[in-house]
Amino acid sequence: MKILFLTQVLPYPLDAGPKVRAYYVLRHLAQRHQITLVSFVRATDTPAAIHHLAQHCHAVKTVPMPRGKLRDGFFLLRSLVSGQPFLMERDWHRAMVTRLSEVITQDGPFDAVHADQLWMAPYARLVRELQMKPLQLVLDQHNAVFTIPERMAGAGRNPLKRALLTLEAQKLARYEVETCHHFDHVTWVTAEDYQAVATQANGHGAPPNDGIIPICGDVAESAPIARKATARRLTFVGGLHYPPNAQGICWFAEKIFPQILATVPDVVLTVIGKQPPAQLRALGIPTHNLDVVGFAETLDTYLAETAVFLVPLLAGGGMRVKIIDGWQWGMPIVSTTIGAEGIITKPGENILIADTPVAFADAVLSLLQSPRRAATLATNGRRWLEEQYDWRRVYQQWDTIYG
């Protein structure tokens, strides 16, 4: 089949959850089908990344993604007037419309359009309108997107921000249900996401469900990191421009880390990810106990010194790739319930789950004080990844859609 694969983020390098998902799905489909990738790109995306993707694709086409606070303000006002979700208003760009028209002319006709995440759904529907030959539309739902602002509103402090987030969640809930009904096939990363969207149908019919296909890692091409016996880092990895990540690590730093420091004074909170919030350094944590790295090209040095891998999320949707990554790297993980949502786990065997500051601190301390227990947790997590979340085996499910 000739498949037009649409992504909101360039799916390489694998430094964010959506990229990991899209990349391995693309890799699997490219084994049997001709893939034309059309993706938004940011200033940080490199020619080397595009070249890497081109090795798996018939063609790679890109469109710059403009961002900025003034633009966001404009689209927020537009969303309030139009009644459409802010996130969808913000990411509709004429440049992408033009590019898709060109691609259909130059590389089409296509047999299918694969929309990676809700953001690309409007563009997939546009392709159906522009192309004369019939084609099937496939939507890969990474998240029940409306639950992200909904949960952030529940945990927020600013009344105005809570109101805007609640309104956005309501708009997205309606939009997701309606959009899913326009697709021939809809896949879901977790059963929880499907159920969350289905509950919003309100008599309009449950959205399509062509299978639960989880986010997976690459076991064959990665070995676990050898951690040092003297490891004293508590490590968080994730793009901090994504509000749930920033919210989660600030909650840990403010509410949990002081309890850990009181017992283990030489421990270092290590925060890796672009655009770290200024709030982290304003909490008064001693400088020798806080390492705000920002974006890091390679993680091996930090991971080798990691005693506990942190997933302290209070909001989010879909699967947290942090846990898949942590298992792949051979890390002992402590997560909240929301952080581990949508992932099959064995709490106490391959991960520790805690939802209150006291319980989370106790879980981290139990691993700091027992390196043997931490090592067992890490080994079990790596083994579980091999059994449950290897893309080469799990992603054969896509063949039921792309026959």
Keywords:
globular, six-stranded parallel β-sheet, 403 residues, 12 strands, alpha/beta, 15% strand
Plain-language structure description:
This protein is of the alpha/beta class. It contains 15 helices and twelve strands. The chain has helices spanning 17-30, 47-54, 69-82, 86-90, 94-107, 121-130, 147-155, 159-180, 191-198, 243-263, 300-304, 321-329, 357-368, 371-388, 391-394, and strands at residues 2-7, 34-41, 59-64, 112-116, 136-141, 185-188, 233-237, 268-272, 290-294, 306-311, 333-335, 352-353. The strands form two sheets. It has a six-stranded parallel sheet, sandwiched between helices. Strands 9-8-7-10-11-12 form a six-stranded parallel sheet, with helices on both faces. Helix 10 (243-263) links the parallel strand 7 (233-237) and strand 8. The N and C termini lie close together (9 Å). The model has no long low-confidence stretch (mean pLDDT 94).
Q: Considering DSSP H and I runs of 4 or more, what fraction of the residues is helical?
A: 40-55%
User: What sequence of helices (H) and strands (E) makes up the elements?
Assistant: EHEHEHHHEHEHHEHEHEEHEHEEHHH
- Structural class designation: alpha/beta
Q: Main β-sheet, in a few words?
A: 6 strands, parallel
Arrangement of strands in the largest sheet: 3-2-1-4-5-6
Strand content: 15-25%
Number of helices: 15
Using the alpha-carbon principal axes, give the shape: globular
Give the N-to-C terminal Cα separation: 9 Å
Instruction: Indicate the mean pLDDT.
Output: 94
List segments where confidence is low: pLDDT < 50 over at least 5 consecutive residues. Answer: none
Number of strands: 12
**What value does the Rg take, in angstroms?**
21 Å
